[in-house]
Write a structure and sequence with these properties.
alpha/beta, Aspartate Aminotransferase, domain 1, Aspartate Aminotransferase, domain 2, 2 domains, 7-stranded mixed sheet, 4-stranded antiparallel sheet, 13 strands, about 40% helix, globular, binds pyridoxal-5'-phosphate
Length: about 400
């Protein structure tokens, strides 16, 4: 046999292992110093009550002959697809139930969707970026071109007519920068995609952090998007499902006269076994009025943390974006430090750990990501240390 040599082209990710190594070395040398992690990319608050209750009662059903369920529909149970369809209505998006596919998360589907596209396609990826887009396409051997997200365009790059791309990744609100596209900006991408017969893979994993009602939660709020965009969303950050696993992908029937929707159904029914019944019942509870209220309390907790961080940075005139509609705060390292210099500076002086922006792409150099996923107590303590040190 011959192996897929494209795997040799994936760059090893040293980002989080290097962070862990530096933190370990520091703790060993300074056992009395308490380190606060503001680099966490995972949620920390537990599942909400209605979700836990739904998981429990679904488990009970599975233990009773009359309500036991075996193989389920790979594309998801209608009770959940229907709830998500209604959820989209709250953002003025009309979908058909069979345009919604339940998945075990956005990461899987963002990679798996590539089965439907030719390896001859050129992929356009913003830089800095969530590494999954680049790695999955590298594994398949596709050509990747980058579009610069930087301070000049407020980390929201717009289409360039001179660039020809077939598959375009957009993540809004963005990880790592927290930047959010407005409707007029997204319209430019939709128009570009339709004109160039390209597809937009829209990652809306953080849409639930948006509070400004003028900002789009879904690309389908934009006219023309249904003929060129596939949307990926997840309950991971929305409802703390990072360990529970559930997400959804919308493949509109307008793309290539329903062909892409049909192909995705065929792909999923062949290669995917679906999300467990119990988990789908837990996910269903997220979309009930009580579920929405409870997850909002958790989201507000994270957003308050972000506000505390942002106010501290403001006080010391440190340029930053994000935090408002996102759990991420993206800051410019002071005194022209590189991302790793600033990492060391924070670790040594105030024992705060964040994520160097350079780990997300070349345009991330000189920037730094802090997250609001920590506890309130630790967030406040970290900000007090920063405040005192920067004076
Ligand atoms: C966390 C995250 C996701 C969600 O991934 P899951 O696989 O659903 O947990 C998707 N996209 C981005 C950019 C993320 O940061």
């Amino acid at each position: 046999m011959n192996i897929n040599t494209n795997y040799q082209n994936i760059s090893d990710s040293y980002l989080f292992s290097t962070i862990a190594k530096k933190v370990n070395e520091f703790s060993k040398a300074n056992p009395d110093k308490e380190i606060i992690k503001l680099g966490i990319g995972d949620v920390t608050l537990p599942l909400c009550k209605v979700v836990v209750n739904a998981l429990k009662s679904a488990s009970e059903e599975m233990g009773v002959k009359e309500t036991f369920r075996g193989y389920g529909p790979e594309q998801g149970y209608d009770f959940l697809r229907e709830k998500i369809r209604t959820y989209y209505n709250t953002h003025n998006v009309e979908l058909e139930t069979d345009e919604i596919f339940i998945s075990d998360g956005a990461k899987s589907d963002l990679g798996n969707i590539l089965d439907l596209f030719s390896t001859d396609n050129t992929v356009l990826v913003p830089d800095p970026v969530y590494p999954v887009y680049v790695d999955t396409n590298t594994m398949a051997g596709r050509k990747i071109i980058y579009i610069d997200a930087n301070a000049q365009n407020e980390f929201l790059p717009l289409p360039d007519e001179s660039i020809k791309a077939d598959i375009i990744y957009i993540c809004s609100p963005n990880n790592p920068t927290g930047a959010v596209y407005n409707k007029a900006q997204l319209k430019q991408w939709v128009d570009y995609a339709n004109k160039n017969n390209a597809v937009i893979l829209f990652d809306s994993a953080y849409e639930c952090f948006i509070t400004d009602e003028n900002l789009p939660h879904s690309i389908f709020e934009i006219e023309g998007a249904k003929s060129c965009a596939v949307e990926f969303c997840s309950l991971s950050k929305m409802a703390g499902f990072t360990g529970t696993r559930c997400g959804y992908t919308v493949v509109p029937k307008q793309i290539q006269n329903g062909l892409l929707n049909k192909m995705w159904l065929r792909r999923q029914t062949t290669k995917f076994n679906g999300v467990p019944y119990i988990i789908q019942r837990g996910a269903e509870a997220v979309f009930t009025p009580e579920g929405q209220k409870e997850i909002q309390e958790n989201l507000n907790y994270y957003k308050e943390n972000a506000k505390i961080i942002s106010q501290t940075l403001d006080k010391h005139n440190i340029w930053h974006i994000g935090g408002k509609h996102s759990p991420y705060i993206w800051l410019k390292c002071p005194d022209n430090m590189t991302s790793w210099e600033f990492f060391d500076y924070l670790l040594e002086n105030v024992q705060i750990v964040g994520t160097p922006g350079s780990g997300f792409g070349k345009n991330g150099e000189g920037y730094f990501r802090l997250t609001s996923f920590g506890s309130r107590e630790n967030t406040i303590k970290a900000c007090e240390r920063l405040d005192k040190f920067l004076k």
